[in-house]
Design a protein that fits this description.
Elements (H helix, E strand, L loop, with lengths): L2 H7 L6 H15 L8 E3 L25 E7 L3 H12 L5 E4 L8 H4 L11 H4 L3 H4 L10 H14 L12 E7 L4 E6 L4 E9 L8 E3 L10 E4 L5 H4 L14 E5 L3 H13 L2 E6 L5 E2 L8 H5 L5 H13 L12 H9 L1 H11 L5 H26 L3 H6 L12 E2 L3 H4 L5 E5 L7 E2 L3 E4 L2 E4 L2 E4 L9 H5 L2 E3 L6 H4 L18 E3 L11 H21 L5 E3 L1 H14 L4 H5 L27 H14 L5 E3 L1
Parallel strand pairs: 2-3, 2-6, 4-18, 6-19, 8-17, 9-10, 9-17, 10-13, 11-12
Antiparallel strand pairs: 1-7, 4-5, 5-6, 14-15, 15-16, 20-21
Bound molecules: NADPH dihydro-nicotinamide-adenine-dinucleotide phosphate (NDP).
The site of NADPH dihydro-nicotinamide-adenine-dinucleotide phosphate has 27 residues, from α9.
Length: about 600
């Protein structure tokens, strides 16, 4: 460790080498050869884990064979934003299709107790100014976010043509008529001039491949399909059905952190099965200050979103308009801290010095997170097991004020699996270290597929020009222009996290993409074109740009404890969560799109 890095930090009350070795130890315990293959797909005998608890399954309707201007697959924020922007651009018939019974996307499915956003609602909920809406809290609870999604759908008149409880099964490009034919599991054979795919990045729940999982005789469900018929209560808690139940929850990620306090309050006994502890920092939720909210000047939401995205991208903004746990972490652990150090040194930091300083700052930050555990959780061995030993960005940081105190309840037992995970599920319960914990119910808080193929997660394949399917075209990875259009798939827009740049505030990235795609659609109208398609050369150039900007964070991710951020420990050259994305970050990406629009050439697109 160089003297500069140490000098910059002042007093260091920890031994970096000792911490590094502890981190490596904890990572090594968790690395397993099967990586992503350890999980079980929710299909075949596990298909019922994906059933929709919120709809009338007897619902029927006649198949549709009509034509609309735009079909949007996915009614979450991505689909809603695309629809809103296309509506503003004058598109008339817009049809949202979703397998869910309503709009809302992730907020439709995730209604588990305690569900709430943990990016501030003032920047997380899209179109607040357009709709004249005010979030009730700094961090909105799920029902409000769901209601906001409905409000967007009503405001932009999206219910009229929407098809819910409808799963797309395939799509085919109709060369003769320059349009798409969309087939669904309700025997629809509808057509659309344009299709937008907004199917979401974390939309397919996954189960752990634990031996004996099918033999359990009690009740089981995944957090994204919460069974309130069984537990009683609602998203706000009061799970009265659990008063006489021994409940197990497997997983301690961002979802579990939010629902465990409610399970702890309601269950007769709660067993929390932990493989890796989350880093849980201060949340500090509060009702919205109405006076402050009404004082905001027009254009405020965009300004706040941009300020947050700049800060979490490591830009040194003159002010922090959000001032929460996210911006605190990013101000402390990114280029902002490096710039501050350079100012103090009076020169630029050498790359090595910068890396070392970041590492020291990370240890210090995580020591704070670990201290929060020991000062909150009374039982020393439980507190010790709840401490996370990895760098802050190895896993998604969590923010909660009731999670750690829940472990002080006499009815809650933390079953730490020492990084190994649950050993076996039996007819009566769960086995760890040879001990069987008898339970009535198992809640799987084991997350969602990430890193599986696009078409698998979307649930269908697409046949483009000349009979080529999207899975064939993307066999070696996605190929797009700006992550939004692909050659051979005319009049199709992708909204999501493919070959784009994202930010912690994902709705911000979705809003930029939606506005960009709507611009392309309206420009094509102005130019009397009925076909818009990315050229092969534009695809190649964008691939080269992705390669050029790739975040080479291999070492960082290799030293991380496994999870979906680092492909379960099987790290590729271009890193983890951001692999295959535009690595120069969202601020540059949004500017690049704006400049592309400004130039007015629709460069890289062929219009006919
Ligand atoms: P995660 O993938 O983050 O967590 C899954 C959990 O299951 C991990 O703790 C994992 O342990 C554990 N697990 C997996 N297999 C086993 C096993 N065999 N035995 C024991 N434990 C096991 O899923 P979440 O649903 O918690 O979160 C997914 C994402 O959803 C978040 O990262 C976030 O992006 C989003 N989210 C956002 C929220 C918001 O406020 N906006 C709230 C909630 C979620 P291990 O870590 O060892 O793999």
């Amino acid at each position: 460790m160089s003297a500069t890095a140490r000098d910059l930090l002042g007093d260091i009350d920890f031994d970096p080498a000792e911490l590094h070795s502890k981190y490596m130890n904890e990572r090594d315990k968790r690395i397993r050869p099967d990586g992503n293959e350890q999980y079980v797909e929710i299909a075949e005998r596990f298909a019922s884990f994906g059933d929709d608890p919120w709809v009338d399954h007897t619902f029927t309707r006649d198949p549709l064979t009509d034509h609309v201007d735009v079909v949007i697959v996915g009614g979450g924020f991505g689909g809603l934003l695309a629809a809103a922007k296309l509506r503003e651009a004058g598109v008339e018939r817009i049809r949202l299709i979703d397998s869910a019974g309503d709009v809302g996307g992730t907020w439709y499915w995730n209604r588990y107790p305690g569900a709430a956003c943990d990016v501030q609602s003032y920047i997380y909920l899209p179109l607040l100014e357009e709709l004249g809406a005010m979030p009730q809290h700094k961090y909105s609870f799920a029902p409000e976010i769901m209601e906001h999604s409905r409000r967007i759908a009503r405001h932009y008149n999206l219910y009229e043509d929407a098809c819910f409880q409808t799963g797309v099964t395939s799509m085919e490009w109709d060369e003769e008529n320059s349009r798409w034919t969309i087939f669904t599991d309700r025997s629809d054979e509808m057509t659309a001039s344009i299709v937008v795919l907004a199917t979401g990045p974390l939309n397919r729940p996954k189960l752990p491949g634990i031996k004996g999982i099918s033999s359990f005789g009690g009740h089981m469900f995944h957090t994204s399909r919460w069974d309130y018929d069984y537990t009683g209560g609602d998203t706000y808690g009061g799970l009265s059905g659990l008063a006489d139940k021994r409940v197990a929850i497997i997983g301690t990620g961002a979802t579990a952190v939010q629902c465990i306090p409610h399970l702890a309050d309601s269950a007769k006994e709660l067993f929390v099965f932990q493989r890796t502890p989350s880093s849980v920092d201060v949340r500090d939720n509060a009702p919205t200050d109405t006076e402050w909210f009404s004082s905001l000047e027009p254009g405020w939401q965009k300004r706040y979103m941009e300020n947050f995205t700049a800060l979490v991208s490591g830009y040194d903004e003159p002010e922090d308009l959000i001032g929460d746990g996210w911006t605190e972490i990013f101000r402390g652990l990114t280029g902002i801290a490096a710039k501050d150090a350079s100012r103090r040194l009076g020169r630029r930091l050498e790359p090595q010095e910068k890396e070392e300083m970041m590492e020291l700052l990370d240890y210090r930050k995580m020591n704070g997170v670990r201290n929060r555990v020991t000062t909150t959780v009374v039982d020393p061995s439980t507190a010790s097991a709840l401490q996370p030993w990895y760098r802050q960005f190895c896993k998604r940081p969590c923010f909660h004020d009731s999670y750690l105190p829940a472990f002080n309840s006499p009815s809650v037992t933390l079953v730490d699996t020492n990084g190994k995970g649950v050993e076996e599920i039996t007819e009566r319960g769960i086995v760890v270290d040879g001990v069987e914990y008898e339970v009535d119910c198992i809640v799987f808080s084991t997350g969602f597929e990430y890193g599986t193929s696009y078409t698998r997660r979307a649930g269908f394949d697409i046949t483009g020009r000349n009979g080529q399917t999207l899975s064939e075209h993307w066999a070696d990875g996605a190929r797009t222009l700006h992550g939004m259009q692909s050659h051979g798939f005319p009049n199709m827009g992708f909204i999501g996290l493919i070959q784009t740049a994202t930010t912690v505030n994902i709705p911000h990235a979705l809003a930029e993409q939606a506005a960009h795609f709507a611009h392309i659609v309206s420009e094509s109208k102005v130019r009397n074109a009925s076909v818009i398609e990315a050229t092969p050369q534009a695809e190649e150039e964008w691939l080269a740009e992705i390669e050029r900007t790739a975040v080479r964070a291999r070492k960082f991710y290799e030293e991380c404890t496994p999870g979906y951020y680092n492909n379960e420990g099987h790290v590729t050259d271009d890193g983890g969560f951001a692999a295959g994305m535009y690595g120069a970050g969202p601020i540059k990406f949004f500017a690049l799109l704006a400049q592309w629009r400004e130039e007015g050439r629709l460069a890289g697109l062929e219009l006919k």
